[in-house]
Specification:
alpha+beta, about 550 residues, 18 helices, seven-stranded antiparallel sheet
Length: about 550
């Protein structure tokens, strides 16, 4: 594909061109991945090293107690990995109703009773065993060094750290781990995380066994029990990530691939299937019509996703039914180009997160995402090994009469999940590994950036830099301050409730994009990193 490399948007970024590349939301994590590539590792090795490092340097978004997903091209074919966590054996609707009240609609937002078995470490091990080149322990060494020596806290990370302090300071282990002076670190202040270095070393030496049933799992069980939780080492011992076949949808001569449910990646596929019914390229790229159409397509997709998506074995419809071309064409007919609408779910039945990506000169491309869910996750930090635990359990339902009964909590079940890596192919060949962070912003970011690249020919950095909108619920749309005021006014006139929000980190996510230019050993890749975080794309 031929891109226009003129960038019409204000940006401090230019694309990076290289044969071996790593792109993450924090420079030290990108450097960790690049270090592994220089040592002879491949893209999977680099991604694992970057993922481990970023648990230390961006703890506001992820930690050793995160979940993860991955889509990778191994040089010949595409593979998907679902490393989202499963509920402890004790978790039932009755467990939460008895403990938190008969009217409980969901597990709590914070605390030990929000923690499912974290899958990120399992994903590192699984990827290394199947596709890695260097010894697993070598991949965690950069993260161990950073945790022990410390690093200087960046402005974007400090902003979210400070914002979470009041809510989380009383959660077990949080203050000891993340408020070493009784407060959040200041910008440029040295932060060390030596307990996490101990945890990383145990994981490295045992190839993950310490985490899944070993000494770390036992420490987490003891920590949880002391603070009213019920997760046990046996829950960890029974955990395995799942290799899956990505689901896909064709769009403008390319194919977008996403991880299947229990995640929300299907949202982006459905929205693109709806947009396939329109001549998007015939509309002005930053104009009212193009933005309105994309917003309405996303709203239609979310209406179905929030109603139906859960653990696949619990869903009353299949992903294939939700992606059926005829069904999506029927949904597209509901869009009124002159009026915003609040859509309900259709009937498809017939009858803070981090994202990173890496690629190497041998053609391996990795799209990887891991997250603690909400900022700092549960807020709970196991003190011996520095395991900052996610709060994915909060995404379950306790109410069997709620919007999506398929997502009701049960032992060993995985909740509805928000983090989604993306991968683009053309005629069966790899084109781009990419992702956008930020809860329900993720599929919206996938759609907005792909439309800019595939419909309008914008290069990945321009598509990344362009102003974004974010659909929340009903008619509520947040937009960045850089969006054309005339477009904002035009969308408002069509019934969208527009709010111009300047907090780019919180509201519009951040993305990383690696586009393959041809033979990777000769022509390499073009890489874009998002200015909304401290991201860095680096290569050689």
């Amino acid at each position: 594909m031929s891109f226009n490399f003129h960038n019409p948007y204000l940006s401090t970024r230019t694309p990076v061109f290289a044969r071996n590349v790593v792109s993450t939301s924090h420079p030290l994590a990108a450097q960790a991945g690049l270090r592994i590539l220089h040592q002879g590792g491949n893209a999977v090795d680099a991604a694992i090293a970057a993922a481990a490092a970023i648990t230390i340097v961006e703890p506001v978004s992820n930690g050793l107690g995160s979940d993860a997903f991955c889509i990778l091209w191994d040089g010949k074919e595409l593979h998907g990995l679902n490393a989202s966590g499963r509920a402890p054996a004790t978790w039932t609707p009755e467990y939460f109703r008895k403990k938190y009240g008969a009217d409980s609609k969901a597990p709590p937002k914070r605390g030990v009773d929000t923690v499912t078995v974290p899958g990120a470490v399992g994903s590192w091990v699984a990827l290394s065993e199947r596709f890695g080149k260097l010894p697993f322990a070598d991949l965690l060494q950069p993260a161990i060094e950073i945790a022990e020596r410390g690093y200087l806290v960046s402005p974007v990370v400090q902003q979210k750290w400070s914002a979470a302090t009041d809510e989380l300071r009383n959660q077990p282990g949080f203050a000891d781990a993340f408020l070493p002076w009784g407060r959040a670190p200041n910008v440029g202040e040295l932060f060390q995380f030596r307990t996490a270095a101990r945890g990383l070393r145990a994981i490295a030496q045992s190839k993950g066994a310490a985490f899944y049933g070993g000494e770390i799992a036992q420490a987490i069980e003891k920590f949880a029990a002391a603070n009213g939780g019920s997760i046990k080492a046996s829950d960890f011992a029974g955990y395995k990530p799942e290799w899956v076949t990505p689901i896909s949808k064709d769009y403008r001569g390319h194919t977008l691939h996403e991880i299947p449910p229990n995640g929300q990646g299907i949202t982006a596929l459905m929205a693109l299937g709806i947009l396939n019914q329109f001549d998007v390229a015939g509309l002005k790229v930053d104009g009212v019509d193009s933005q309105h159409l994309q917003i309405e397509a996303i709203k239609l997709a979310f209406a179905d996703v929030y109603r139906y998506v859960a653990e696949p074995s619990s869903m009353e419809v299949t992903a294939a039914q939700m992606l059926d071309d005829a069904y999506l064409a029927s949904r597209a007919k509901l869009i009124d180009m002159k009026k915003a609408q609040d859509f309900g779910a259709g009937n498809p039945v017939k009858g803070g997160t981090i994202y990173l990506t890496a690629a190497d000169e041998n053609g391996m491309m990795v799209s990887f995402i891991q997250s603690n869910y909400m900022g700092f996750g549960s807020g709970c930090v196991e003190p011996q090994f520095g395991i900052s635990l996610q709060n994915r359990g909060h995404a379950f339902s306790v109410d069997d009469k709620g919007l999506n009964p398929a997502n009701i909590v049960a032992p060993g079940k995985r909740p509805f999940h928000t983090i989604i890596p993306g991968f683009l192919t053309k005629d069966g060949a790899p084109v781009m590994s990419f992702g956008v962070m930020g809860a329900n912003m993720q599929p919206q970011g996938h759609v907005q950036t792909l439309v800019r690249m595939l419909d309008y020919g914008q290069n990945p950095q321009a598509a990344c830099d362009a102003p974004r909108w974010r659909y929340n619920a009903g008619f509520e749309i947040n937009v960045e301050t850089s969006m054309d005021p005339a477009t904002v006014q035009g969308l408002s006139a069509r019934g969208h409730k527009m709010a111009v929000i300047s907090d780019n980190y919180q509201d519009y996510g951040a993305g990383q994009f690696i586009w393959r230019m041809g033979d990777p050993a000769k022509e390499g890749y073009v890489v874009a990193s998002d200015p909304r975080r401290d991201g860095l794309a680096a290569g050689f």
